[in-house]
Amino acid sequence: MSAIRVSELTKSFGSIVAVNRVSFEVQENSIFGFLGPNGAGKTTTINILCTLLKPTSGEASVYGFDCVKEPAKVRQAIGIVFQDSTLDKDLTAYENLLYHAILYNVDRKLRKTRVEEALRFVGLYDRRNDLVKRFSGGMRRRLEVARAVVHQPKVLFLDEPTLGLDPQSRASLWDFIKRLPSEKGVTVFMTTHYMEEAEVCDRIAIIDKGRIIAEGSPEELKKTVGGDIVYLKTRDNFAAKDILERALGLKPVLREKEMFIPVKKGETLIPEIIRLLGESVISVRLQKPTLNDVFLKLTGKHIRDEEWDSTDEFREAIRAYRRRFDRG
Ligand SMILES: Nc1ncnc2c1ncn2[C@@H]1O[C@H](COP(=O)(O)OP(=O)(O)OP(=O)(O)O)[C@@H](O)[C@H]1O
Ligand SMILES: [Mg+2]
Q1: Nearest ligand 1 atom to alpha carbon 308
Q2: Cβ of 35 below 6 Å from ligand 1
Q3: Tens-place pLDDT, residues 195-245
Q4: What is the pairing mode between strands 65-66 and 2-13?
Q5: CA torsion, points 16, 21, 25, 30, in degrees to nearest 10?
Q6: If you classify domain 2-222+299-327 with CATH, what class do you get?
Q7: Which residues fall inside 5 Å of ion ligand 2, going by CB?
Q8: Helices (DSSP H) in 93-154: which residue ranges?
Q9: Contact 30, 181 (CB under 8 A)
Q10: Whether the CB of 11 sits within 6 Å of ligand 1
Q11: Which of 120, 121, 174, 273 would be 125's cystine partner, CB 3.0–4.6 Å?
């Protein structure tokens, strides 16, 4: 069963086509990643799915509810963590979640349990009575995830959930996100431009300039790049290069102190290399293709090269949408 269906979705802002005939489906209880550089159209797509923006054309539905015709039903079925924080910093963690539970009509008798359960889920139960302004960036992000699941949504949208967090906070937030499908029955739709994060997704769509340019599991996508790289350091790199060329038909490329060897399948070749070179080997390292290599192959550029190109005006517009959403 598909939790999200998007077909030929297009959104233009004047002459800018932010989302250009995008189509995809997200399976229930999976993690779907929307991967792309700044300005690719990720937030715009999320805003349409969350009923904050109307598409110019095309269709989008969440759990069978049409995002344009049945916005109220869509909103009950979803939770959102926006790109920018929307917590009330002068309230406690508990109060932020309780306020949300009231807004979402969580049954009065269930509110306390649901809020406490969500706080436990992200490991913030012990800090529930602290003001959010005393929280670190990572704790705030975790609290936003907790808030987004208080009303037990079927689909959770996370727009750049880990942007600006240190690696440790990112890893800890990821631990919670990964458990959502199995433990909470939540389908996750997330955007990121951190390639390592996209690796945990079941499926990924790579979006660039409003268009989906590739879709598949991380493994499938990386297979399209083809080939590993073996990095090798030996006591005599020139001699080693010669042996590998003659005996295995490899084409090692010498760099300063090591060589790199493009190969089809590193793990089967490394034992061969070691057998041939024996004790001359100082170090050997295998690098598999990354999602960045996939992006590079498809677009000729790195995913993080582009500069932030949004205007203050745009940010203000998004804030206005949010306020509208909060009011229901
Ligand atoms: N309300 C708006 N008015 C005008 N242009 C907009 C508006 N919202 C988005 N855009 C433009 O649409 C394009 C896609 O923007 P979007 O925010 O969807 O990108 P994104 O993939 O989320 O980028 P980022 O990684 O920087 O968050 C950009 O060129 C942006 O400037
Ligand atoms: Mg965005």
Answers
A1: 26
A2: no
A3: 778 888 999 999 999 999 999 999 999 888 777 888 899 999 999 999 999
A4: unpaired
A5: -30
A6: alpha beta
A7: 42-43
A8: 93-103, 108-121, 137-149
A9: yes
A10: no
A11: 120
φ/ψ bin of 188: left (φ > 0), alpha (ψ from -120 to 50), beta (otherwise) = beta
Ligand 1 pocket: which of 193, 197, 314, 322 to mutate (most atoms <8 Å of CB)?
A: 314
- Residue written as token pair 């979006």: 207
pLDDT tens sequence across 71-99: 999 999 999 998 888 899 999 999 999 99
Instruction: Round to whole Å and give the CA distance between 317 and 170.
Output: 28
Q: Is the CB of 18 under 6 A from ligand 1?
A: yes
List the structure tokens of 159: 């727009």
Domain spans of the chain, in order of start = 2-222+299-327, 227-288
C-beta atoms surrounding 115 within 10 Å? 25
d(CA 64, CA 15): 31
The residue whose CA is least distant from atom 24 of ligand 1 is: 38
Please give the CATH topology (third level) of the domain spanning 227-288. Answer: Alpha-Beta Plaits (3.30.70)
The per-residue pLDDT for range 252-281, each reduced to its tens digit, is 888 878 888 888 888 899 999 999 999 999
